[in-house]
Design a protein that fits this description.
Blueprint lengths: L5 E6 L6 E6 L6 E6 L4 E6 L6 E7 L6 E7 L9 E6 L4 E4 L8 E3 L6 E7 L3 E6 L3 E10 L2 E11 L5 E6 L4 E6 L4 E5 L2 E6 L6 E6 L4 E6 L3 E6 L4 E6 L5 E6 L5 E6 L3 E6 L7 E4 L5 E6 L5 E5 L4 E5 L8 H18 L11 E2 L13 E6 L2 E8 L4 E7 L13 E3 L2 E3 L1 E5 L8 E5 L5 H12 L6 H10 L2 H6 L69 E2 L32 E2 L6 H14 L5 H10 L8 H10 L8 H13 L1 H9 L7 H14 L5 H16 L4 H9 L1 H16 L13 H18 L9 H25 L5 H15 L6 H8 L2 H11 L4 H15 L1
Parallel strand pairs: 29-30
Antiparallel strand pairs: 1-28, 2-3, 3-4, 4-5, 6-7, 7-8, 8-9, 10-11, 11-12, 12-13, 14-15, 15-16, 16-17, 18-19, 19-20, 20-21, 22-23, 23-24, 24-25, 26-27, 27-28, 30-31, 31-32, 33-34, 35-36, 37-38
Length: about 850
């Protein structure tokens, strides 16, 4: 190769990981990208060649957009066609001029993770359903039409890669570690050699191709089955390969934060380019010879060999600072062998090649340095924070600038990078697991197993941990047990069955491996920065002083650690940029917000924001927007109720005695809960209304407001579930099939039970205490209604929370008042049914056993 690649520019616009990138065959130098933000986008080069700008965004996905390809203009398609694959199992076709799909291809039964384009209007797809499929698309009377013509079966795991070769050959790469060659729908050869999932394929010629794998290698094959070369150099999963112009070499990228440039006949990379993100998901060689890389930091980075397209010295310096900062904050710190460390004097000698990284010991610190050929010097990339899994000062592990007792590598599925799960011993494992799910946009399906993982791996540490209570005494954490896990030690506890999800990782922990019980319980309040999903009011939150709680001896004996539940469930995950974008969009449709109003709303989106009274007035204003524009307003409301005590008081109490807006607010939220509208906007409003009500429990004023509003809230919850879960309305009102909605509704009832429990009595003023009997009676009734109407149709996590709610409501029943009421409402059958339906879920089964003792013995 004649020249080296240099940083050119960064392309911004996506709001989440850019999963795939394709060098567009459309006119001019363009790029097409697919992202976890559920969009694909078309980018065109700026006129001056200094960067790229977005030309179009393609929407309609209901889950991650994970693969993309395209064809150029033709007689049938003058503008060309763009194809996208998604985790929603559907392939969509777009005109480059339309944001909505013009056709859909359905047939896969799991996520579509790979697409390839061929001659004769042929498209091939790969999926987690272990198949590849061949489609023919054509222009019909009603527009573009597509039809599946072949279904290729034979792989035993997800098909991650597809490649159309010449002479009618098709190659597929799979998580079963093999590459298969197909002709006329039949497998004619299986290539073995990779030791882990095969992630991508690229054609070198009519009879040679490349494959890359999670085993950190790239292999060069002939179509007859011979492996000509194995390329070693990556230190982690290799996700993507792309052949350079002329076929003299290729580029590869993956999970080791590098883009590597290779010559075909070389055993080592010709160039290593450091990247400022953990995951480099995809690389593409563009028409002009540049290389584009799709990254997990929601950007694309462009590299060029042409001096006139290279970035300025200032921009290069800024890019290098990003690389350094990313490595420093990652806390990834690879396991370091002492023999791999070099003395600091090694920096006095030049590197062996551009991009070479060495680790040197400087006193007690280990630093990473990278050799820059052009600058002829070593660049300090920063301290290797997590080297050898060593703890920070005080026995903590640093992650993203915050110290934790543990930072676990959690793999939701085999074959993708691990996600980081930070955890402090003072945190409630259940809430830490929920925050992890919210932060990483994962399915609620994983909640129980992630929590089990936390508990299994911190048992001894939690047993020995004595957090300080508010009075200075030690308090037992209800999550206690045995078996401490030290990151980097024996991974035997992490073994398990993988679940096919390509956006999470492989090799350390796979949900499904643990059968241990999961306890939902109290503990002391967490630092809101460490664990923003959890808030437990302290004694200073009391609106009034109530008589002291009766001694434990007169309470019903505690027979399980599941209840009484302590601490409220709140929802703190936030995508501030997304909310602001929606506010701007809907503002134009609903009368407009001034610049100062937009600024005040932004402050409400920050936990540390400086909130002014005018901000609440602006929030009241946007809460009057039409229902189909209300999504960002409800999101702002949800966060305001959680983060800003004075603002929450204004929302729940009004600014004057005659202010009726609080009453109208709760009526509006309840109206969204029971609506029969099943549009996307209505479902989002329903979910956020429930979460906003949950968050109001964060402050005493909000709790009192919800107690006083129970006659609005409880009937809405009952009516909504009777509509949504009855068989006659299952099709017309399917919104309660949404797990997140079910869990939010269950969380709201559970929060009421926490407020009503003996441990919370001191937090209620005298007026509200007078309501507690009526509210508790209503709460018992509603939770049983939900259990009865849901039964086998409810999500297991929602069912668990309902059971904990019921247990909390009756665990301090000194006179059996609520026990008798629960019995009269049919609690015995409900509890037995839940135990039978979810006998495979340990925490539910154990809850039902405990409830049976409390109710009937």
């Amino acid at each position: 190769m004649d020249s080296r690649f240099h940083y050119a520019c960064t392309v911004y616009g996506h709001e989440a990981d850019v999963r795939d990138i394709f060098a567009s065959p459309l006119p001019s130098t363009q790029i097409i990208s697919a992202s976890r933000d559920k969009t694909a986008r078309l980018w065109a080069e700026d006129d001056d060649g200094s960067g790229y700008h977005q030309k179009h965004s393609f929407e309609g996905h209901t889950n991650f957009a994970s693969s993309v390809t395209a064809i150029g203009p033709s007689e049938d398609y003058p503008e060309g066609l763009i194809f996208t694959g998604s985790s929603d199992k559907i392939i969509r076709m777009y005109s480059p001029l339309s944001s909505q799909p013009i056709a859909e291809l359905k047939g896969h039964t799991d996520a579509v993770c790979a697409l390839g384009i061929g001659e004769f209007q042929m498209l091939v797809s790969g999926s987690w359903d272990k198949t590849a499929r061949v489609w023919i698309y054509k222009k019909g009377v009603a527009g573009v039409e597509g039809k599946q013509v072949l279904k290729l079966e034979g792989h035993t795991a997800a098909v991650w890669a597809v490649l159309l070769l010449q002479q009618g050959l098709l190659a597929t790469g799979s998580a079963d570690k093999t590459v298969k060659l197909w002709k006329a729908g039949k497998c004619v050869h299986t290539f073995s050699g990779h030791e882990d999932c095969v992630r991508a394929l690229a054609a070198l010629s009519a009879c040679q191709f490349l494959s890359c794998s999670n085993d950190a290698t790239v292999r060069r094959w002939t179509t007859t089955g011979e492996c000509l070369h194995v390329y070693y150099g990556h230190t982690n999963y290799v996700y993507s390969i792309s052949v350079l112009a002329g076929g003299a070499g290729f580029v590869s990228c993956g999970e080791d934060r590098t883009l590597k440039v290779w010559e075909l006949d070389s055993s080592e990379p010709a160039q290593d380019i450091a990247l400022p993100a953990q995951s480099a998901w995809s690389a593409a060689v563009l028409e002009n010879g540049d290389v584009a890389v799709a990254l997990s930091d929601s950007t694309m980075r462009i590299f060029t060999t042409k001096s006139n397209r290279a970035a300025s010295a200032a921009n290069v310096a800024a890019y290098e600072s990003e690389v350094t900062a990313n490595l420093a904050k990652s806390g990834e710190g690879q396991k370091i062998n002492e023999k791999d460390l070099q003395p600091i004097s090694a920096l006095e000698s030049p590197g062996a090649k551009d991009g070479q990284v060495i680790m040197v010991r400087d006193g007690t610190a280990i630093q990473a340095h990278q050799w820059s050929e052009s600058a002829a010097k070593w660049t300090n990339l920063g301290d290797v924070i997590g080297a050898n899994d060593k703890k920070a000062a005080g026995g903590k592990t640093e992650y993203q600038g915050v110290e934790y007792d543990y930072v676990f590598d959690v793999d939701i599925q085999e074959g993708a990078p691990a996600l980081k799960l930070p955890y402090n011993l003072s945190d409630d494992p259940w809430f830490a697991a929920q925050k992890f799910i919210d932060d990483n946009d994962l399915s609620q399906y994983f909640l129980e197993e992630i929590c089990t993982f936390i508990m299994d791996n911190t048992k001894d540490a939690r047993k020995n941990h004595q957090p300080a209570a508010a009075d200075g005494n030690t308090a037992d954490d209800p999550f206690t047990g045995k078996g401490r896990y030290v990151p980097g030690a024996d991974d035997s506890s992490a073994a398990g069955t993988s679940v096919e999800d390509p956006f999470t990782g492989g090799g350390r922990y796979v949900p499904g491996s643990g059968d241990n019980e999961i306890h939902l319980g109290g503990g002391v309040a967490s630092d809101p920065i460490m664990n923003p999903n959890r808030y437990i009011p302290s004694d200073t939150d009391a609106m009034d002083t109530a008589p002291p709680v009766k001694p434990q001896s007169v309470l019903r004996p505690a027979i399980t650690s599941y209840f009484p539940k302590e601490g409220y469930i709140t929802f703190a995950a936030v995508n501030a940029a997304g909310i602001q974008g929606k506010l701007t969009t809907f503002s134009e449709q609903c009368g407009g917000l001034s610049e100062s109003e937009m600024t005040s709303l932004k402050e409400l989106l920050r936990a540390d924001g400086d909130v002014t009274p005018s901000a609440i007035e602006t929030l009241w204003k946007i809460l009057q927007w039409p229902a189909d524009c209300l999504l960002p307003a409800l999101d702002v409301l949800r966060l305001t109720c959680l983060w800003h005590d004075f603002s929450c008081k204004q929302l729940c109490c009004g600014t004057t005695e005659s202010d009726d807006r609080p009453k109208k607010l709760v009526e509006m939220l309840c109206r969204h809960i029971v609506t029969n509208d099943n549009s996307k906007a209505a479902n989002a409003n329903r979910l956020l209304s429930l979460r906003a009500l949950c968050n109001m429990f964060a402050y005493a004023e909000g709790s009192a407001f919800l107690m006083a509003s129970y006659k609005d809230v409880f009937p809405a919850l009952s009516e909504g579930f009777n509509l949504g879960l009855s068989e006659s309305n299952a099709q017309s009102a399917p919104y309660y099939g949404n797990k997140n909605v079910q869990i939010a509704a269950a969380s709201l009832l559970l929060n009421y039970s926490v407020l009503l429990s003996a441990s919370s009595e001191v937090k209620l003023n005298s007026l509200i205490r007078e309501l507690s009997s009526a509210v508790r009676s209503s709460c018992v009734e509603v939770v049983i209604v939900h259990l009865v109407t849901g039964e086998s149709m409810s999500d297991s996590e929602a069912t668990f929370r309902y059971l904990v709610c019921l247990g909390t409501l009756i665990s301090d029943d000194r006179n059996d008042t609520w026990v008798k009421e629960a019995r009269a409402l049919g609690a015995e059958r409900v509890v037995e049914t839940a135990g039978a339906v979810y006998s495979h879920v340990p925490k539910i089964f154990e809850c039902t056993k405990s409830l049976s003792v409390m109710l009937f013995e």
